[in-house]
From TrEMBL:
Prepilin type IV endopeptidase peptidase domain segment(s): 35-136
Gene3D superfamilies in alphabetical order: 1.20.120.1220
Organism taxonomic ancestry: Bacteria, Bacillati, Actinomycetota, Actinomycetes, Pseudonocardiales
Name under which the protein is recorded: Leader peptidase (Prepilin peptidase)/N-methyltransferase
Highest taxon of source: Bacteria
Amino acid sequence: MRSIPSWTVRALPAAVLPLLLCPLLPVDRVPILVVLVCFGVPLAVVDLRCRRLPDVLTLPAYPVVAAVVVATGADVVRAAACALLCFGANLIVHRRHPDSLGGGDVKLSGWLGAALGTVGWQALPVAAALSSLVTLSLRLSPTQRGPTVAHGPGLVAGAWLAVAFVP
């Protein structure tokens, strides 16, 4: 009998806990939070294991997030502007310091920005700070291997927390 890979045991709470919290959160935010979990957890797991955010997981989130933005009646212009702002800011960092932020992180930040835009402009700095804290905690983790750290899990966690709890 094959054993369950340890990463699946660690990823399960990351997928289940946010979904369990959804009934306690504002109803209008639940759809975008579910999208964040469905796309974000697999991306975070892949990034932690392989230091990659593959297009096959990152790019399909764009039309799904756009559909949820429209379906929930969120401000489409604000969501698009937040997406462009997050994408653009991360693209600038990637171009100036490609070793510190990968192209997958840039692509991920675009649809996360749109998700944050469903809440409001105030979610952007909160998510940025939370993302940095999560990434720093990963860097300081005793299980950290190599000179680089996966930033995707921090981006996803920061966005989820900001969408869930920023008023």
